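Handout, section 4.2: multi-component inputs.
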Amino acid sequence: MKSKATLFFNAFLVIMFVFAFTLPASAGKTYKLGMSLAITGPTSDAGNPYAKGAEDWFKFVNETDYLGDGDKIDCPIRDDQYKNDTTKRFFEEFLDDGILIFLSYATGGNLALKRDFEEVQIPVIPASYHEGLIVDANYTFMPVATYSENAVGLAEYVVEKHKGTDTPQVAFFIHPSAFGRGPLEDTRKAIAEGLKIDIVEVVEHGTDLDNTAMLQRLQSKGVQYVICHTVQTPVATMLTDAQRLGVSAASFGEKGKLTFLGAHYTGGSDLIALAGTATEGYIWADSYNLTSEKNEKAKKQLELAERYGRDDKAANSHNYAAGILAAQIATEAIKETKKAGLKINRENIYKTMQALNFNSFAAAGPVTYSPTERIGVDVMNIYVAKDGVFKKIQAFESQYIQKVRAGR
Amino acid sequence: MSQNRWLATGNFFTSYKQEQRTFFTHLDRTIFTCFLVLLFGWPLVFEISNKYMLVLDNILIAIVAVMGLNLLLGFAGLISIGHAAFVGIGAYTVASFSQVIGENHVIITHFWPVLIVCAGIMGAIFGAFVGLPALRLKHLYLAIATLSFQMIFEWFIQFMSFFNQGQTIYVGRVHWFTGMVGRSDHYLFWYYIILFIVVILGFGVRNLLKTKYGRCLVAVRDNDRAADAMGMNPGLTKVYAFALAGFFAGVAGALHAYLYRGVGFESFTLHASVGYLAMAIVGGLGTLNGIFWGPVAIKFLDIQVEQFSEFVGHYLTYAPNVATALKPLSFGLVIVLFLMYEPRGIANWWRIVKSYSKLWPFRY
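Output:
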């Protein structure tokens, strides 16, 4: 009998010994998030590095115990291939899994799910900076300045830097969709509020491989500035044609020539890779810190990319930085909620996000939200393409966008 | 007719009326009834996540749309590459009401069955209009005409500010006898509604094919000049085939609008039209049960490939665009293989299984 008890006791000790070495030192909590974006298919040139940025940041958070107490973030990243119906399916799947924050992607997908976000009361961090996403919406937290802010800001920049007493003659080169048209409408509203530019022509580009006729028409109409709001490929085609025709301005606002400017998705290292030397002089508004700035922030981004074996293309992409920032906002929201001693749930994270304030190495300025403010980084950097890279000229904040928003 | 109404082993009809029966044997009727009970009853027993309910709802909507396309392409022999545009007409009919009277207006939320029928009628009107070229055009030329309609539809939606330039137009939550259908019941509610519509329309198609109007469709497909000589009106038949297809598509569009609680342009592109075409081909053109097999097969293939490409992408990190290639590759491959080796679609496999089961074990 005694030997049987000893046997059981020894077996118990062995089991305890095995458990002691197999269980982690401190098993923290795991917070579930969900991300749906176009890693493949249309716009994957932006979605792919964006996904990598978010993935790397979450890996970093988990490996370095960034949240403390061994807590981790589990954020599955699903490829919706830019299809709204698929995004909706993933969103439902994530809700079934009990996610705390949804990291979304495209304008169309976000607009389609806008009502669901409000109903489910889930904080959302989109990759689209379409102004409409934050109109009549409480749960969408825009990471950076909107496309409209970019376009109106660039128009203001033109007014500020334009030499001469005449009104700057501007053309808009936009994507043939609501994504392209939205910022144009807001620029028109800014003009109605007193912004001194003339919109001479609006070009909704197709899939043209030659823009000769369009560029010559713009010149004949006396256009001096072309503000672009589309994706990189059509801008690259236009810039290459402008270089071939010799109509690109050598300096900002050169008389008789065209000065090209563009918003978030029109620029970056991918544009330089596509258009080469034709990009020189291109003015670009963006709220992310670029690695070409070679500052401390850029160093941190490159370190993160190197840590997870990313190639140069991804590491230097502003879309990689965008993915990092979206992941950082989610991480900081959880961290701050935890710090406040609140239970980690959607409701408390939403409350925390309304007062979130932190600095990110990926962004051009601090991320600040408030109960009435849904845009994280308000400041934009104005960059110019020079010697094969984008260099910062100055930081810029649109004044007229506030008037446009007030007029809604 | 066979003496044994449970196990008929051949065609022994003694009157046209007997041939008009929906179910030839009691066994057929019993199996079908059990199947229906199963379809309506399983959600009461098993709890399924919203994600899968959404997939099921989507398959049922595709079945409604493919019913129309199969009538047009399979039974009337008229090719259409613009079917998603007809579905879009239905969806945008609901969206138009939403734009004009507001997304939560009582007409949208309470009279949704009426709106679904309206959407179908609107689809039928557009279908008949687009079908007019069919009076003069055939085969590839007709395909191009329907393709043009698809292009016009896309252009129209994207440029009309009334349609929000293709961005989402919201549709409110519907009401049932028990009150507003909330988020938790949304997908289940629409599962029952769409299933009910599928059953009604399925019987409608089956009965149509037994009427002179249905026979006209087949006659015009096989030889329109012979049909004309037999006293049929091929022109009218072609136009009403398009109208019928438009009606089914319109209903599908309205269901899509209500299921997704909004209408966005991206769901009704040329790509979606090709998808419907693939469903019709894979299911089996000119067959009734092919209407059901096609959407089920293509939608499940879509999800399986999606999961497989994610799995592959996870291990082949050096080939990040493998999923981009896999999806269209598998989609195209399936269609090509079906056209090559089984042009009669999955419906033919069903026919083979049924024939075998009739002979098994020793029946003759």
